[in-house]
Structure prediction request, 614 residues.
Amino acid sequence: MASPQLAQEAGPEVERPPILQINGLVVEFKTGHGAVAVVEDLNLALRSGETLGLVGESGSGKTTTGLAVLGLLPANGCVSGGSIEFDGRDLLRESPASMRKIRGRDIAMIFQEPRRSLDPCFSIGDQVAEVIRAHQDVSRRESFRLALEMLDRVQIPNAARRAHDYPHEFSGGQCQRVMLAIALACKPKILIADEPTTALDVTVQATILRLLADLQREMDLAVLLITHDLGVIAETCDRVAVMYAGEVVEQGTTLDLFESPRHPYTSGLLRSIKQPEDGGNRLNAIRGVVPAPHEFPSGCRFNPRCDFVVEACRSAMPDMVELDNGRVVRCIRVNEITFEADS
Amino acid sequence: MTALLETVGLSKSFPLDRNLLGRVTHHVQAVNHVSISLDVGETLAVVGESGSGKSTLGRLMLRLIEPDAGSIRFQDVDLATLGRSEMQVKRQEMQMIFQDPFSSLDPRMVIGEQIAEPLKVHHLVKGRDERRARVMDLLQQVGLREHQFDRFPYEFSGGQLQRIAIARALTTDPKLIVCDEPVAALDMSIRAQVINLLHDLQDSRGIALLFISHDLSLVRMIAHRVAVMYQGEIVETGPTAQIFEDPQHAYTKTLLSSIPVLDPRHRMLLA
Prediction:
């Protein structure tokens, strides 16, 4: 089995064809304010064995992107443009029946609140076995045996005995392990992990992230990690896409992005969570407020909060500017402005 | 220098289970013999994981819940000796900000009136006009505009609501504010703004902050001293730099080694 280490620097020479390719994705929600585009012109590529971080604030469209890939948008949301290609198939053209086969078998997702994603009325062994029976032609007994194997793999102690217990008998961290067992039971090619450790304590978070990295290596899994925590990104991701107000504003290798951010939002965000250079206690805050989707400003959506704004920023949405090493930045001034290096 | 607030052997347990006769058969020791002190104008961070008792400790300090044992001295007064009305007067000096401003503000009351409520309760101003003037002044201090007085909470973002909660805490000119995870529910690009606001207010008014948080990276940047809680006890306390650079207790070490590091070159968790 191929076992790519979590590459510190994803060099261009290891290019494998992406397993998931999103091009120009637009997702709209019907709201009281009319149709609102909560994801706009989103381009992402995800390769097997790689972890791509999708980082942004609440309402930036990162969860919506994950749900769009799985065809799980809520009733008032729809994809109104672009394509989502999985292994050469456009998921947006698949029928609901074939999407149901793809979900769980090829692409799986785990969520922030593991306990809320589990059914309180069934034992966890049954819940892992259920997804196995849904996608594989195996007997009830065999599915339960496979479920035990999976629970063992996610390091639930005493899996054979614990499989008969119910979600309320497990801690939050253990519930997330069970969710991982369910998600990975059918050996999917892609895992979408939406804030998988946000509800957990830091010590538990560390063990879950380690487990996820181990399983990823064993299974050559592509992981789309959705989070608002830049620390988690720095620890786990090969590449990062930073979302703001429905758009990807910057994308690149984790190393490049953390060491030399090129978009003012990325730079501001990183500065705001680091010790100020002058050693004082006052943090480097980004001014202004996060806009609600129905009041996204025209032009660059970050322009009201940007320290480098010029008149042209307010007129048209900037195009993605391609730089070296796979970096793309949505800023018209990307080649004019520099941020002081802080490493 | 005498401490602004000092607790000695503070303990609190909660019942978990009762038998047929209503007697408590199991209980959880939420706070166990905690003795800490807080100086004027100081930021003391209480860190720990969920269930470690840090929020209970914050509530005990304001006597929002009664301790089972131990004492709390605030400005050299033993809070346990105060009666109900005396305690209410004392509370002017000690305020609290909660994690979720959406639920700590009344959705049916305009924000100006909510900020004014402590002024009414404590009879701090005479008449409508003076009250309104004081609220306008507070709104400005927390970075909001005067015309927002008559708006309802749903018209604000999370960060603005937390500013409103801070303004309300400031009305009585407190010497201590217990901040229970004040930025955990806020968007990340807004957190630094609210932290800076608290910092500026501390500077200008000499307020002591008891900063309850699980965000160790943030605590490292803003606290003067840190107390680490684990299962109801304070396992280690000291100046921030010392705790982070030279932790002594095994739990502190575990906690610190679990924090994701913001440097992709030096990964700790997956190494």
In short: The first strand of chain A starts at residue 20 and ends at 31. Chain A touches chain B through 45 residues (CB under 8 Å). The mean pLDDT of chain A is 91.
